[in-house]
Design brief:
alpha+beta, Alpha-Beta Plaits, four-stranded antiparallel β-sheet, 26% helix, 32% strand, rRNA binding, Ribosomal_uL23-like
């Protein structure tokens, strides 16, 4: 594994996903993120550990197929994206980050 530049790690994670499926996965201490398509699993792990100060046990990635979109008679595709499901150690959690106490 190569040494990662810490300022580059923050750019790998685009946004967290807070859908119904992602909320169900949170009960298992798994969190979903949209990431840069060229990001590797070790880079995603290093980025999550650096940004949130947690211990990551595994990273699963998905290359989702592009979705067709049309405007009138013109057909195009949505931009390519990659999704990562990150499993945290049992003692760590991102719940306070996503759902702060009101």
């Amino acid at each position: 594994m190569t040494k990662h530049e810490t300022r580059d790690l923050a750019d790998l994670i685009l946004r967290p996903i807070l859908s119904e499926k992602a909320t169900i996965l949170m009960e298992q201490n798994k969190y979903m993120f949209d990431v840069v398509p060229k990001a590797t699993k070790p880079e995603i792990k290093a980025a999550i550990e650096y940004l949130f100060d947690v211990k990551v046990t595994s990273v699963n990635t998905q290359h989702l197929p592009p979705k067709k979109r049309r405007v009138g008679r013109f057909v195009g595709y949505k931009a390519h994206y990659k999704r990562a499901i990150v499993t945290l150690a049992p003692e760590d959690s991102l719940q306070p980050v996503f759902f702060p106490e009101v």
